[in-house]
Amino acid sequence: MSLSFPLRDRILYTSAPAFIMGIVNATPDSFYPGSRAGSVEDAVERALQMEAEGADIVDIGGESSRPGGAYVSAEEELSRVLPVIEGIRSRSAVPISVDTRKAAVMKAALDAGADMCNDISALEDDHALADLLAAAGAPVVLMHKKGTPDTMQLDPRYADPAAEVLSYLLERAEYAQTRGIRKDMIILDPGIGFGKRKQDNLALIAATRRFTAAGYPVLMALSRKTCIGDMTGKPVSHRLAGTLAANQIAVGLGAQWLRVHDVGETRDMLAVVQELQTYGIH
């Protein structure tokens, strides 16, 4: 089985069970120190290395959304991400996603050659963003979060995490379509770690099939997050094995996108899953 997904001016294909989105943080304060690029050159090299290791798309972020983090201005975000996009585009045609909530940042990114928007606010924070993406014919990842990064982990509560998060994401997907974004260009992200307790995160991972059954591709962003540490007792630098296990389960439940720091290892995991699936293990 192969997967396909429409970008602005091309179709993304993979024969693997899921697309791999490699994380490139052009920020000084992302939660995983090993993911922080110290310079534009470093960020570009990381993106190219991820492409070589098998990333289907690289996700460039210039505003950390870690718990307790603070938002930055559009000007600051642009100064971080735009040179990286331009540097990648001068050397590679690898698809580029931009992790942003802001129309001004996304417009400049699209003009520089980006292909997709990854919006942690699900098009709520900047109403101009949906219209921009629709006009550009660019896809979008809609993520659920409760609150803002500086407050989202202050006692979040859910009666039924899966039902509440899915209801919100379907509402935002419907909104995106009313603004002109095609349904087949919308990806849903349950927002693991964004205003969730341990039990909420685990319930959402376990309920992946409920999200995939809603008719949209689902992205799981579990890489080295606190919930992996909660399950393994390991610090962020030692959460790769736990991440791979959680991602394998999510893919087995139908997730078609994985956002990860460790591209090569994820590609190996998916290769094993793919081979075993051909022998009837599902």
Automatic annotation (TrEMBL):
GO cellular component annotations of the record: cytosol
Biological pathway: Cofactor biosynthesis; tetrahydrofolate biosynthesis; 7,8-dihydrofolate from 2-amino-4-hydroxy-6-hydroxymethyl-7,8-dihydropteridine diphosphate and 4-aminobenzoate: step 1/2
Keywords from the named record: Folate biosynthesis, Magnesium, Metal-binding, Transferase
GO molecular function: dihydropteroate synthase activity; metal ion binding
UniProt cofactor(s): Mg(2+)
Family annotation (Pfam families): Pterin_bind
Protein name per the record: dihydropteroate synthase
Organism the protein comes from: Teretinema zuelzerae
